[in-house]
Amino acid sequence: MAGHSQFKNIMHRKGRQDAIRSKLFSKLAREITVAARTGLPDPAMNSALRLAVQNAKAQSMPKENIERAIKKASGADAENYDAVRYEGYGPGGIAVIVEALTDNRNRTASNVRSLFTKAGGSLGETGSVSFSFDHVGEIVYPLSVGDADKVMEAAIEAGADDVVTEEEHTIYCAFEAINEVSKALEGLLGPAESVKAIWRPQNTVPVDFDRAQSLIKLTDALEDDDDVQNVYTNMDIPEDVMAKLSA
């Protein structure tokens, strides 16, 4: 999924990660709290919590923040969050999936719908676009762990399904096998930069400059919403468009 990697690189070059670090930590903490409430508050005994903590660490979230988020799950004042998925089409008919954790479904649905409408897109029913994506595990390693052949061999040994090497090594596996594959890879390559479940498009759609700008504006607005955790699209940004966007 070339566009996904390229799009992330644009965000890094523009310093977006630094600008939203506080918001990012808040969202990671929410994921940890929700995961901790699904089972035992111990990452070793709770696979969902282990993944949430691993991703928080990969984003350099302080240890005390992680521990506070876990403890919050068992507190009397802990909020109840619902995991909600929204699906729709952005500018030019590009498929968009939005994952949210919310304590107010009406508020979140209204906000997400409004952002789609302002961008010239439309929000659809659940399942309206997810049929064209695969829900899989994504395990990311920096290029410094080795060349593509080394990572491919490790991925095959660990039971992964696919590897894409561009600005980083991105390893894909079945959703149900995330924990087993990530553990095996850690033994072979060391700790990953991130381990999470994602929606991977079965096919991507090239976008021109204007459509890419509109889609990036939409995804930015969605990610800025406090309730939104992740945004996925099937857009692919060609190299010439990428150069213009990065200028």
CATH class of the largest domain: Alpha Beta
Which range does the strand content fall in? 15-25%
- Helix coverage percent: 40-55%
Question: What quaternary form is this?
Answer: single chain
Q: Would you identify the regions where 5 or more consecutive residues have pLDDT less than 50?
A: 1-6, 9-13
Please give the number of β-strands: 10
Mean pLDDT: 88
Coarse morphology = globular
Describe the structure.
- The protein has 247 residues and is of the alpha+beta class.
- The chain has three domains: 2-72, Arc Repressor Mutant, subunit A; 82-131 and 203-238, YebC, transcriptional regulation domain (Alpha-Beta Plaits), CATH 3.30.70; 134-201, 2-Layer Sandwich (Alpha-Beta Plaits).
- The protein has helices spanning 2-13, 16-19, 21-37, 47-58, 63-72, 105-118, 148-158, 178-189, 209-224, 239-246, and strands at 82-89, 95-102, 122-124, 133-141, 162-165, 169-174, 194-201, 205-206, 228-233, 235-236.
- The strands form three sheets. The protein has a four-stranded antiparallel β-sheet. It has a four-stranded antiparallel β-sheet with strand order 5-6-4-7. Strands 8-10 form a two-stranded parallel sheet.
- Mean pLDDT is 88; it is low at 1-6 and 9-13.
